[in-house]
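User: Predict the structure for this protein chain, please.
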Amino acid sequence: METTLNVREFSNISMIKGPLMVVKGVTDAGYNELVEIEMENGEKRRGIVVDSQLGMAVVQVFEGTTGISPTGTNVKFLGRGLEVKISDEMLGRVFNPLGEPLDNGPPVISGEKRDINGSAINPAVRDYPEEFIQTGISAIDGLNSLLRGQKLPIFSGSGLPANILAAQIAKQATVRGEESNFAVVFAAIGIRYDDALFFRKFFEETGAINRVAMFMTLANEPPVVKILTPRTALTLAEYLAFEKDMHVLAILIDMTNYCESLREISAAKEEVPGRGGYPGYMYTDLATIYERAGKVKGKKGSITQMPILTMPNDDMTHPIPDLTGYITEGQIVLDRSLYNKGIYPPINVLMSLSRLMKDGIGEGKTREDHKDLANQLFAAYAKAVDTRGLAAIIGEDSLSETDRKYLLFGDAFERKFVNQGVNENRDIETTLDIGWEILSILPERELTNIKEAYIKKYHPAYRGKK
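Assistant: Here is the predicted structure, written as structure tokens:
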């Protein structure tokens, strides 16, 4: 949005409908242009242009349209997008998407104003993600590794502990060797009040708040404010990464609330709905958020994104997870059956995938045996799950000795490797060692995906015999 446009004033409101207000006589309103509304009693509200046609502009009011009269109200088009003052002072603080403090602290003094509608990183200057980020969670680090500059969403279901997992990753994640230069930007979009309290309390009690900047909107706030939340958060992430050379992890929770807000605004504008009632441009809109993550050539900093979304009815083919999967580089899937077994985090490693993992692990990055070990754990767990199905049909007594070992392996994998405490921060060596320990349940002839040299070096049967 160009900032050279002049401020224009209008007072001819032709329609007010829900959170939207139609202003007539406007010929040059820009999309996402900031608007100031002054009512007869002197009260001021803000909004942005969500649609512009010949001779009229549709404005979405942040605070809602209740109490606004079509007569006697003055509407100023400010000729610029929504700008928020951002600074590294924001770390350790909680804000709303307009940059106003929610933690009773002072407003941001130093810093620079930036338009929150940033653009995607230019593909020509993108750098390929190759550095491993340690989250301290075995199911992610060992089998679906997160790399610096990657977009790796978490697909959750209603009632699954995505909030706790998000908070744990925010507390634990780090680039090894660059711990002091790591920050987390946490965008909570349209969350419930008790969830908001949980996040604040968790970060404050664990001391993680010092490196976390939170942007928060609650479920009862207008849809347009929810739509601004990830954009303001990513604007700060871009500033910290590319101006302050920090490694930033942006956690966006819950993108389902974001998409519901998008649908609400689209319905209010009476647009033709697309799949599932969501607007046809939802793919493009999500891409404007997800593609703001990455590494830039010649810059030390980076933005890694973990969007978290709730799959309606646990359905991975629903438009929100489906479109997210197209834009991002893999997914971590939470599983209800594992959750019901009492396993935390209930990550289904067979449904999960990190497309960039192979480039960020191995010798000099994690450990030389990481790739082979991950392949073997995947293969063995897949066979264990198949064997469970077979045992349910023919009975465990009819299985071969090897198959029974696979059943033992499957249980140990879930109980020891996937399962861990909320405050348990495992380094990658610990994760890999647990992997070897549970693989030792299987006969050595079954370890067909691992080089002989690694078996001799890391397998518990040989480790004591040097």
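The chain has three domains: 8-81, 84-359, 369-458.
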